[in-house]
Request: fold
Amino acid sequence: MPPLSGAFFCLLHLFFQYFCVIITIRHERMAKKENAMPSKKLDFKTGQYVVYPTQGVGKLVRTEDQVIGDQKIKMLVIDFEKSRMTLRVPLERAEISGLRPLTSIKKMDEAIASAKGKAGAKRMIWARRAAQYEDNINSGDPMKLAEVVRDLQRRNATDTMPFSARRLYMRALERMAQEFAVLHKMEVEDASEKIEDILGIPKEIDLNAVEEDEEEEEEDYSENSD
Reply:
């Protein structure tokens, strides 16, 4: 077996140094991320509606103190009436968790307007697109929710879509409708219909009803012919 050259050991040494630098940088970034604290404290008040990214709109019902270890932590207690769930979020971690107040009516209108545009390019396979839509929904961002509604909405009454696409569309629409409903003091179901009316989404055709109507017309025609 031929002896290894000095050049090989030099390259190996350089590679090892490069690897160590990459690992160090990665550890520093992870440490900064873990130790990062909110740049400012959001002002939350009992009784106000808030948005938690993965759950949608909830109501801040109270604050309470909890002792964890040797630390006393103030918790925001949020009630999600629709899902019958109560969530506790540490006040110091509220911004990092994505918890936010309701958006403004102006920003909601802008999000709805963006959902009127053309659907995005379908260059990725459906599994990847579905994962991206899922991330958009769980972001709690009205503009990202609007992207899902824009891409998956029906363009005419006879359009059909797979169950998975329909499910994602309905979830995104509902998240937008939850916030829209509170902003405009209306029920979520009415808000969903209002948003679809603004977008000009056609009503679905009940194919079963169409078939029944055609059968009744055929029966009437047969009776008249007799």
Notes: The two ends are 103 Å apart (CA to CA). The CA atoms of residues 181 and 187 lie 6 Å apart.
